[in-house]
Every structure is written in C-alpha cells, then in structure tokens.
Amino acid sequence: MTREEFEAAALALLDSERTLTLATCGPEGLPWATDVWFARDGLALVFYSSPRSRHCRNLAASPACAATVHARTDSWKEIKGLQMEGEAREAQGTAAKARALAAYVRRYPFAAALLAGGGEAAARLAKVRAHVFRPRSIRLVDNARGFATRYAMRVEDGLWQGEPEAENH
C-alpha cells in the first residue's frame, strides 16, 4: 500500500464515520472504553465530554489512550477501520478552544444552533469541554485485502511520517 493510498483510506474513514471509541486507563489501573462523536481537524480528533465523565477523569490522570474508528459491517471480510494510539487532553486557551469548536460545528452544524438557542440544551452543553485526541500511530485494518491485513504509519506533530508498514498477521 502506498502512502497516498493509506492517507486516502484513513481520511475517508475519519470523514465518513462519526463515532470514535476511546480507550483510557484510570489511576487504579482499570481500563475503560467509551464512544464519542468526533470531528477531524487535520489528524487531530475533537470530541466534547464532561470533565466529570469517567474517561475525562482518566485522561486528566493520564492522557495516554487508544482509539478506534470503523465502518459498520455484517461480515468479517468487510472489516475496515483505524486503530490509533496517542494522547487526548482538554483543549486549553482561547485559540485552541475556538479551533476545536470550529471543527466540531463544521461537521455538526446543529451544535451551533443548540448553543445559540439557549435553554436547557445550551445549559447542558455549557458543562462539556473540548478535548483533542492526537494520534502518534495509526493502523489501517482492511480485511478486503486479506484476513487481518494491517498497515501502520507514525504521526508526529499532526503530520504523517514515513511510508506505511505492512503488519500482516
């Protein structure tokens, strides 16, 4: 798989799917996974969650985490998705928060209407915070290319690094 093919396949998945499964680990060593809606800002993935949620408390203690994004399928032969490892942190500072909000509203225009509308929905939204997942590595799983076919690429500072490496098992 070429770098261009990898990038196109990864970005197509990130742009077509809305749910990211985020895996964190708490201070007591217990793993936790949760689904969040996300928006892409380059290779950074923005999600909103309450700081009181279990996954955000886990991230506050340790930002290291893993995430997956995958298309729904009815057959193992059609499994296609991304397995990522990196860090997620709450967006800090006015510019970072504005950038996160812009990415989210671009993908989910209804969020702007909820915020502008006031009322109960806006009050609830005021309790959530923008978080940004920044992958360090991304693995593309594509069973259409063969059972358990994976390609991996590194990411540094939001940029792809090197060429995809095959990880066929």
From TrEMBL:
InterPro entries: F420H2_bilvrd_red/Heme_oxyg, Pyridox_Oxase_N, Split_barrel_FMN-bd. Residues 7-140 form the Pyridoxamine 5'-phosphate oxidase N-terminal domain. The keyword Oxidoreductase applies. One of its GO terms (molecular function) is coenzyme F420 binding. Keywords: Oxidoreductase. It comes from the Bacteria. GO terms for cellular component: cytosol. The keyword Oxidoreductase applies. This is Pyridoxamine 5'-phosphate oxidase N-terminal domain-containing protein.
